[in-house]
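Thread: Newbie trying to understand structure tokens

Hi all, I'm a second-year student working on a class project, and my supervisor (Dr. K.) asked me to get a predicted structure for one chain before our next meeting. I've only ever worked with sequences, so writing a 3D structure as a token string is new to me. If someone could post the tokens and maybe explain what I'm looking at, I'd be very grateful. Here's the chain:
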Amino acid sequence: MKDLRIVFMGTPDFAVAGLQKLVENNYKIVGVITAPDRPAGRGQKIQQSAVKTYAQSQNLNVLQPTNLKDEDFLAELKALKANLQIVVAFRMLPQVVWQMPEYGTFNLHASLLPDYRGAAPINWAIIKGETETGISTFFIDEKIDTGAIIFQEKLKIASDESAGILHDRLMHLGSDLILKTVKHIEQGEVSTTIQSKQEQLHTAYKLNRENTRINWSASIVDVHNLIRGLSPYPVAYTHFSNGDDKEYQLKIYQASKTSNEELPLLNTEPGKILVHDGKLYVATQNDWIELIEVQLSGKKKMLVKDLLNGFTFNEDAKML
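---
Reply by user tm_fold:
Sure, no problem. This is what the structure looks like when written as tokens:
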């Protein structure tokens, strides 16, 4: 049985579950590395990471380097005498950091590697219409998400599941997998599998203004997957014209594929807006999709029925 001294690295809520699991199982956490405090929100108030908040509540030693290659930080990290490092939703580590501990540095990634390597695996699995995803632990090497796999667990994706719901399910599954991985390292029973070299791999690209905008010329399935794959963050968006010179922005948090037989047959161009029986529909390539929860620029998030109480869509309104 190895006597583990662990350094944990992470920033958002997704990482907190794994750290909490280790603390609750009485593992020795000699240091927690997380992002520096930063201004956030409209008031630009200084905010600390979710990992820092939890670590301080447990009186853990917190380090917040701005530069992971800084000599002072490296000396401080080395002085902790950790023999295992765990990374969850942090940032790319320089080799001098991930090679430091005796038993290596392993990462938790929210996909079934080698598929969906990259920054946003949960979102892209839904956007691409996957029915299954999972979680992987692997030892970090010099490239991104390419190291030898330790363990993986699979998880089914429901047809109407949002990225937020899937995030939470993977977070809890991941915390259990971290614990399982640590126990096997502790007992000296770790065996790894080199990631297979597949030709058809999906990449979990960073989300930006281009790939989060809705293309109404796509199929109803693709539009629906994009909306749920970006909800509740960063949220799929569109612009629309209401038959005047003004252009509006609309974020769409929830939508539903519809088979409402009362709707007119789709013989119009994609993007056409239809208000029918107190509901809001938009034409896609092949069907009407119902919008359920939205946010008009400058307004709060609301249900469509509430939006329609205060905003009128003209007959020639169209998504752009």
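A couple of things are worth pointing out once you decode it. The two ends are 62 Å apart (CA to CA). The mean pLDDT is 94. Feel free to ask follow-ups in this thread.
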